[in-house]
Amino acid sequence: MLWLNVKALGLALGLLFGLTIFIATNWLVLKGGKPVGPHLSLLGQYFIGYKVSFLGSFIGFAYAFAVGAVSGALIGWIYNKIVEVRN
What we know:
- With 87 residues, the protein is mostly helical.
- The chain has one domain (6-86).
- 68% of the residues lie in helices and 0% in strands.
- It is built from two helices and no strands.
- It has helices at 6-31, 54-86.
- It is elongated and about 60 Å long.
- 28% of the residues are buried.
């Protein structure tokens, strides 16, 4: 079986998570309206300083990138350990 590059998977998932939050936040900011992103603003409970605003999209990107990078690295590491045991 093939091994995964842990750093590459971490970077890829970090960028995916970060860009998703960044784009979703800016989409809602540009869309406007009275209640701007009530559901997305709940991320502020977990991401300290995050708000549905242009500045908040950068804060959300940083937090989501970190979560995605750690998750991706952990998934890659676990996968590689399973491959190591099976070989």
